């Protein structure tokens, strides 16, 4: 009988077909006409809108009125009646459970379209109380984005089909806060509802245009770029800019283009169409914080035009990030970048935080010296994939850089020595440096390590060092370990796939000893690989136990280190209460069984961790040991997927390492340290506040015990509460800290 009723409801409207929407409520109500006459109707609350219908002969039905959630502007409840309005429609119904129905509609509307973005008036005139939380639980859709598309389709009067909607219902929407559009999607029948749904998507941070005509996409997706305040970044990947300038001028008013970071990837940025587009877009953007040119076609003339546009347009005068990657054949690029660093607005506002000129495979020595000679607020310089063929000199003292990325660079001994000498002498202040995959003559590389090991006073400003994928012989490994021992101020260390355990077992022992001497170490990355030469296995366990006992490590990456069950037991210590670890990567741990790995994942979910990687390869290693025809394999796969869903819900989509997440994780690795420091500072402050509150609570409890006057006792209870944790105590704790002896001395 229930199936017949469901089939009857689905037959009411094409927009209620199975697979295109989900029915949340249906029942009989009384429809109130404009003349206040009432007639019995069927009322359906679906994930895409509300529908009022009537029965016809032979079990048929028809919808008399429908309204999408996008169109709703007001909901009013009075007595047993409810009035739901749009700009053009009004639905008035009466029912005994009208409060439940109206609140359900409001919660669905609120979930799909935030009232702060698309306002709605909600008037609850009934006296008494109602359990709104219970009603809210009636709509807990995992696919709010797909439901919003359905609502927008109903707004446009576009019929939905299960085949088209299945894409949005079977896949989690915007897992990496990205949406990519191409020519195929631009011809999609639901492109208009899709664009409107994205306009109100708060998780949309990055919009990618891939191999499409920019003018066409801008016409379709205009509202996204003009209205979505959460969109931070727009990427043009191999796009055609023909007529894009004219389209921008016709669509956008003054300063209505919202994305603050523009990325041009694999584009012909030397074409007149692009130059015209770039110059016109500046007139319609309020501010641009980031500009990225990755593997683009640029000539000296076109790059100079872009640089001049940046220099003389106010929308770029809050620029925080400038990236030019894989650009070759422009010998005077250092002069062009220098003109930005030397501009009056950059020197005054000190807004430029990051400059990247990478993978140009040219001598970048002069550019580096030019950049650091100006105080423009830099916290990161990325010059990876270039050459340093001459010694460097630094004029301004000191030059604060922050993080310096020199990975995959080619050095002469003189050039890299001059950099470390400048750090040692205080001419440049570098808090972090990436020297992964550096290219040097082997003899010069050994001499560099000898130089680093000989600096017994260490490099005081250096707190983070990445030294991944550098092949070190036994002597080199021991020299690097000596360098670590003299730099006890290091707080973050990454040395993945650099110490070969077979060729340099003594080097690994020296390295292990050095790690244990780093009293300030908080982040440690020692990733292995499929090559057992960089897999330390059981040898790593004593180090893990020692670090856990010291309770200092906040970030730990031991991916592919095959530590086994004993190593997993050591990791469990990091998950105990009181441990500071908040970020863990452990795929490839080589557990003995599926259950052992599953139990550890459950423990991670229930722990205090902020982030933990999902061990996909490790789970599949266990599953692949079972024949495909074995029923146990299917059981384990289902169990893995259920656990994975819970894991992703707990730690976010970035816990799954793939081609989407790895670039994000790589960039976040540089920022990770500062973010963690902020988190830890907040947590420590919270703990201190709680201690202060506890201290004052005990004092007031003692005071309360000694009070003889019942009136005073009653007054104290009224002001402070039985638990003695009211705001008065916060004020007292704040006063105590402000006028403490330590504070007065400071």
TrEMBL record:
A GO biological-process term: cell migration
Keyword Coiled coil appears in the UniProt entry: yes
Gene Ontology CC, one term: lamellipodium
InterPro entries from the UniProt entry: LRR_dom_sf (IPR032675), PP1-Reg/Actin-Interact_Protein (IPR051279)
Protein keywords: Coiled coil
Coiled coil ranges: 679-706
Protein name: Leucine Rich Repeat family protein
Gene3D superfamilies linked to this entry: Ribonuclease Inhibitor (3.80.10.10)
Top-level taxon of origin: Eukaryota
